[in-house]
Amino acid sequence: MRLLMLFVLLSGYTLSAKINLQNTTCKRCHPIIYKEYYNSLHRKASLYEDPVHDAVWQKHPLKKKQNYTCKKCHTPSDTELMQQKTVPSDTPVQREEPISCIYCHSIESIEQHPKANQNILHEQKGERPTLYSADKARRGEKITFKEERGFMGLSTKVTGSPYHDIDLGNKIWYSGEVCLGCHDHKQNAAHFNVCEIGLKKGDTKHTCISCHMPQVQGSATTIKETRTHAYHGIGTLHGIKEVMKWLKIDMQKDQQGFSVTLHNQSNHTLFMHPLRMARLLVTIYRNGKALPQPSQTLQRVIGKAGKPSSPWLADSVVKNSTLKADERKSYRYDMPLQKGDIVEVAIGYYRVNPKAAKMLGIANTPATKMEIVKKQRFQE
Fold it and tell me: Is the sign of the CA dihedral 163, 168, 171, 175 positive or negative?
């Protein structure tokens, strides 16, 4: 059966002089990865698939001029739109692959700029594109498609992909820098960093890819079975929970009460986006009763004249209670613990914090629902 499927794939390749690679093409050899990607925020980045992005755009002053400037990061695969100053149309590209597999895997380098970084794509020559990826065991290799027949022509050994070449030598795919074209920082017209990741430079142990795209069970491709693959469901609830592995929780008790310490072991600030918010929830369970303690927020609030404002008006940070890379913060609770008490510490995550959601007109929507992304219990 596998040989038959491979024959079909190869036949489709040889009958076409030049393949127009789309995400549906990628799905043929990478079904598990495609399924993860399809639920990710990368696939849902456009105005037509992301209600939060659309809500921000509806309030943006550039909407009156029909000058959609978010396209560089939200819909870079829409090549027609990238050449125009207009609002994207409701097209299959906007719905299915605004940030496509091919786009990300074509990023060759990152240009750093004060306003926002820029992705530089590999200049494709010939009929077979070269796509970048990472494999520490094969770092530096360049893989082209090769088909070898053996045992009287009854068996076939396939190397590479029938659709593209693979370059495993690009250093930014190992350092995680490949993500920083869109995810490092973004300035507004006031030259204020609306978003900034606060990346800890020189950390080779933790990278965007190793933390946000960890190896999970399942084969990366149908052509060659692998035990694991890099997770592609970025931005999903499962993906956020994966990142929370780098947030460590500890508790210290004394006679007057206890303290909860959060340690951000990742290489960038957590919950740094001005729309996001996390809440530290601490509950004591005593004799079957829940005793909630005062909650704490972790967020970066931006604004003007000391008050929160929309991103395009902001010129300063009004409040910052986030956790920087490798930062520890302790929160005090003056309630003495008794023998048998259970202290539950949970992290609640908002994709859009309630106040911002109200301003955007999207309160009481799924995007504003608090999700528990980490939970830990301590027992006396």
Answer: positive
